[in-house]
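On clarity, I found the account of how folds are encoded harder to follow than it need be. Since the whole study asks how a given chain folds, the encoding of that fold should be made plain. The format is easy to grasp once an entry is in front of the reader. For illustration, here is how one protein appears when written out as sequence plus structure tokens.
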Amino acid sequence: LQRQKKLTPTVKIYTKIGFLLNIYQYICLDVRENVKSDRQDKTINYKNHMEKDFRTVVQSWLDGNFDEATKAQIRELQANDPVGLEDAFYRNLEFGTGGLRGIMGVGTNRMNKYTVGMATQGLANYMKANCEGPLSVCISFDSRNNSPEFAQIAANVLAANGIHVYIFDKLHPIALMSYSVRMKKATAGIM
């Protein structure tokens, strides 16, 4: 394992906090359903409201600090695949029992460097608010598409938050990453 303190600027997360993220999603779903029924009572079309929301998210990506290649892909979807555009942005990618998984592409409902970075920032926020002592994370990657790049992005986000990162220099099975968390007494592990 290499210890990296400062890294350049995502990933399936294996930690004990995964269940908390799932609970958060169910709470959001429950709130959404309550809002939906409340809006129906007031004769507001919930579907139109959601369409407005996803378009707002799309615009925030076009106006935001995202790279030009990402913005070009969004414009391409706007021009040629409006259904694909909606699917890419209508919700956030869900963190399930198998981790953060999804189709590769642009958008909040896709695996990309931004969604991985946001998920990693969520882990960093949780660790800083709820864990005591020096914080550290072991990061490994496997043979899946973009796994090494996503691992490096996760390492960069954590390092930017002052969290020590131990990152593998080559492909390893998940069992070795799990062992490294115990061996290094790390706060969490990411693969």
